[in-house]
Amino acid sequence: MTEQSARDFPYDRTDPAAAIAEVAEQVRNWGRWGDDDRLGTLNLLTAERRAAAAALVRTGESLSLSLPFDMDGPQNGWRRRTNPVHTMLDTGTDAVTGVQGFPHGIGGADDVIAMPLQCSTQWDGLGHIFDRGKAWNGRPAEEVVTALGDGVTGIEHAADVVSGRGVLLDVGRALGPELTGTDELPDGFAITPDHLEATIEAQGLTAEVGTGDLLLVRTGHLTRARRGVAEGKGWGGYAGGPAPGLSFTTAGWLHAREVAAVATDTWGFEVRPNEFDEAFQPLHQVCIPNMGLTIGEMWDLDALSAACVGDGRWECLLVAGPLRVTGAVGAPLNPIALR
Question: What is the pTM of this model?
Answer without folding.
Answer: 0.96
